[in-house]
Design a protein that fits this description.
Elements: H1 6-24, H2 27-55, E1 58-61, E2 72-75, H3 77-104, H4 110-129, H5 133-152, H6 158-188, H7 193-203, H8 207-224, H9 233-239, H10 242-275, H11 279-299, H12 304-324, H13 328-359, H14 370-373, H15 375-389, H16 395-409, H17 413-439, H18 455-470, H19 478-490
Antiparallel strand pairs: 1-2
Helix pairs in contact: 1-2, 1-4, 2-3, 2-4, 3-4, 3-10, 3-13, 3-18, 4-5, 4-10, 5-6, 5-10, 6-8, 6-9, 7-10, 8-10, 9-10, 9-12, 10-12, 10-13, 11-12, 11-17, 12-13, 12-17, 13-15, 13-16, 13-18, 13-19, 15-17, 15-18, 16-17
Length: 494
């Protein structure tokens, strides 16, 4: 029965389709195959989430080898949630990419682009679904290597430098992760995550385990661009093709947050962190600095892509604040923002891609008067900006409401003030774009006719922007599933 093999099909289908895109050669055929695969991946992820919510975790044995001896795909409420986010963003990005990428890349490179995009999607889905620690590293590298290729395809020559910088930092992070996994195997003799979670408590204060924890923590924080290990991210987002920026901003760092959660709560467990290394004292200061410093740096950017890139580093700080509280409310807040930020920032970068298509740039000065010339695109950006700030009735407000609530529960008023301060800083950098687009006349050297973006790009943009409004009103999916995942993690289930 095919339903029993959905966990494997979640990976096999996009992995098998990726080289076919390269063989098809024609861009339209490669795009059509990619779109079909992304929609299938979304459908599978939705079915897996519904099954997990109804019946509990799913264990899938690859090759008939029972875990922990064989590789296991294990789906619980946490990674089913992440699978849905990644697959949904992929399914929205690929329709958007057809027109956007056709403008930025020559026809001869389109097959390679969709191959790399499907490989990246495969890697991110694989990281989320696998129950094997080394398998996680393998899928992480698949997504990373394809990300470097996608970023390097940017038409600005600085895209190559950005991709190389990302490659260097990503390789360092991956090296830390694989060393940490090796140390865990040396100490426990297993790579299965659930089995690791069962064996580590019996080892007590083991130095090898503590060192492994440190290596995995540093590697994961490099991958998710937590301050001060974030320097690869602004250039990568700024110079990658527009569709790539939207996809990576909405998925890659979110999957890295998932890796951190999986290591901390499934493998090491909450008790290990409480006794050996306290998340609160380690990450809260870095997260608060990220929120305040990177939001401030965003204010002074003249390139809107770079502005949103620094904003993303600040938003990662918000997620890490929630994760580091180590309470049900805190974890819920972190995972709600993981979901909400994916739709908000994906929509904002798509709106910017529409602007780049028509104007050729996203410098703030070149956006002057664009509110009248591209009203639908700029309205989408304004709505996304309001959600990023955290205005009531938007998804961003829900995230920050839960974050502040979690801080108040622990009487951490400094963190609560930092969350509110970050929102005020977001008002300033979003307002800079709004002011240029609506309150300043078009520059004298601006093209006489700047038409609205094509519907093939506007519809995906409004799907994500609409989601950022919808999930600020109807929270049963984002908050409901995030709370279930938080309770699952803190309950000690493997």
């Amino acid at each position: 029965m095919i339903a029993a093999h959905l966990p494997a099909l979640q990976i096999v289908i996009p992995l098998a389709a990726a080289p076919l895109c390269l063989l098809l050669r024609k861009g339209d055929l490669a795009w059509a195959l990619s779109l079909l695969v992304s929609l299938i991946a979304l459908a599978i992820s939705a079915v897996l989430l519904s099954q997990v919510l109804a019946h509990g975790p799913i264990s899938y044995e690859l090759g008939g080898w029972a875990p922990p001896w064989g590789i296991e795909y294990r789906i619980d409420v946490l990674n089913a949630f992440v699978l849905l986010i990644v697959a949904a963003i992929g399914a929205v990005t690929i329709p958007y990419a057809r027109r956007s990428i056709a403008d930025e890349l020559p026809e001869s490179q389109l097959g390679g682009f969709y191959t790399a995009l499907l490989l990246c999607l495969t890697g991110l889905l694989g990281v989320a679904i696998t129950g094997d620690a080394f398998n996680l590293f393998v899928f992480l590298e698949i997504s990373s290597l394809s990300s470097y290729v996608l970023i390097a395809m940017g038409r600005d020559r600085r895209a190559l430098t950005a991709a190389f910088q990302y490659l260097v930092m990503g390789t360092i992070g991956a090296t830390f992760i694989v060393i940490g996994i090796g140390l865990l195997y040396m100490a426990t003799g297993t790579l299965n995550m659930a089995d690791l979670g069962a064996r580590i408590p019996a080892l007590g204060a083991n130095r090898t385990i503590i060192v492994a924890f440190a290596f995995l923590t540093v590697g994961a924080t490099l991958k998710l661009a937590l301050f001060p290990l974030h320097f690869w991210l602004p250039n990568a987002y700024a110079y990658a093709p527009s569709a790539v920026t939207a996809f990576l901003a909405a998925t890659a760092t979110k999957v890295s947050i998932y890796i951190l959660l999986r290591f901390f709560y499934t493998i090491f467990g909450p008790a290990f962190q409480a006794e050996d290394l306290t998340l609160h004292s380690l990450f809260i200061p870095l997260a608060v600095i990220a929120v305040l410093v990177c939001s401030t740096v965003a204010i002074f950017q003249i390139n809107v892509k770079r502005m949103l890139a620094y904003s993303s580093i600040a938003q990662i700080g918000y997620m890490m604040i929630g994760v580091s509280f180590d309470t049900v409310t805190g974890l819920t807040a972190g995972m709600v923002h993981l979901f909400n930020h994916a739709v908000i920032k994906g929509g904002l970068f798509m709106a910017l891609g529409c602007i780049v298509l028509r104007v050729g740039t996203c410098q703030i000065d070149d956006l002057a008067g664009l509110g009248r010339r591209m009203p639908l695109t700029m309205f989408a950006f304004v709505l996304g900006g309001l959600s990023l700030i955290g205005v009531p009735l938007t998804a961003g407000f829900i995230s920050k409401w839960y974050l502040v609530q979690a801080a108040i529960e622990l009487d951490d008023w400094v963190v609560a003030a930092a969350i509110l301060g970050g929102s005020l800083l977001a008002v300033i950098y979003v307002w800079r774009v709004v002011e240029s687009a609506y309150l300043r006349p078009a520059p004298e050297n601006a093209p006489d006719e700047v038409s609205e973006a094509p519907w093939s790009m506007l519809v995906p943009t409004y799907i994500l922007i609409g989601a950022s409004i919808y999930f600020g009103v109807e929270t049963s999916l984002n908050v409901g599933v995030a709370r279930a995942a938080a309770q699952f993690l803190l309950g000690g289930a493997g």
